[in-house]
Amino acid sequence: MRIFRVMKWFFGIAFAVVFVFVFAVAPYLLAWLVTSAGTRPPDRRLTSTPADFGLDYEEVSFRAADGTPLKGWYLGGGNRGVSISCAHGLFRSRREVLDRGQFLRAAGYNVLLFDSRRHGESGGERVTLGYKERLDVEAAFRALKERAPGDEVAAFGVSMGAAASLLAASESKDARAVVADSSFISIDHTIAHHLKLFFGLPRFPLGDELLFFISWRGGFRASDFDIEKAVRAMGERPLLFIAGSKDERMPVETQRRLFEASKSPRSKFLVIEGAGHGAGYRTDPETYKEGVLGFLAGVFPTP
């Protein structure tokens, strides 16, 4: 009998340990990893600059409203009277959007490529998946206004940068248009979607635990991190949503849902065939450029 009591005690302890690890420790560790990491090692080894595209540029430093120091490249000299901020995705850096910044500058736009907080050469203690990164985008708007006071401003972003740009534009009247490549709908939705995609797990209970720890470490309320709501709040301002037909992380249906939330008749929806997540330009540069430049030309006619 004693051995059975010992076994019962052992399995009870083992179950409790596994339960605590699965439903508390593991979600916290994952949240810690996501919010503490920055630019991934392969991107840190990149050395490309606008000079590789034959462009003159200026190294710039500016600060977000919460004091976070930010670094970037300003590509000035445009003649269209429009300045565009370019925001990269999670675990990347400004170099992710350098190719897109290059064709925007070649088309006559002034461009600011920058590292979001805790990425690249910028400061910051936490990654918040786009929520506080919206402050970085708003700071980019101000930096652009300082360098070209007479310019109109637009925002461009990929993945996390797209979400941050949409949030920033919903809070700032500076941005007259946004190009959002592979954004997500909300922090709640994207956590549930990725749990199912990568692990085949339902949202409850691990998704709720992960959402709690990410929002706690990020210092925000999950209910405030809603991109679809931000799109509605922008009213008649035109938006371009770009999706990759093979993007499983932020699928076409996600981008279409955001597009349908827009109240502007000038908003556009572009699907790049064969493209994975954030890879539309790399997959089909001509279609991508034509879509982006055509949208911008419609919003900002040539002076």
User: What average pLDDT do the residues reach?
Assistant: 92
What distance lies between the first and last C-alpha atoms, to the nearest angstrom?
90 Å
CA-based shape: globular
CATH level-two architecture: 3-Layer(aba) Sandwich
Class by SSE composition: alpha/beta
Using only C-alpha atoms, the radius of gyration works out to: 21 Å
Query: How many H/I helices?
Result: 11
Annotated CATH homologous superfamily: Alpha/Beta hydrolase fold, catalytic domain
CATH class: Alpha Beta
The domain tally reads 1
Low-pLDDT ranges: 15-21
Helix content: 40-55%
- Write the H/E string, N to C: HHEEEHEHEHEHHHEHEHH
Beta-strand content = 15-25%
Descriptive overview:
The protein is of the alpha/beta class. It has a single domain, classed as 3-Layer(aba) Sandwich (Rossmann fold), CATH 3.40.50. It has helices at residues 2-36, 41-44, 98-106, 133-147, 160-171, 187-199, 206-218, 227-233, 252-261, 280-283, 285-299, and strands at 58-63, 69-75, 82-87, 110-114, 152-158, 175-181, 239-244, 268-272. Strand 3, helix 3 (98-106) and strand 4 (110-114) form a beta-alpha-beta unit. Helix 1 (2-36) packs across helix 7 and helix 8 (227-233) runs parallel beside helix 9 (252-261). The protein starts with a helix and ends with a helix. The model is unreliable at 15-21 (pLDDT under 50).
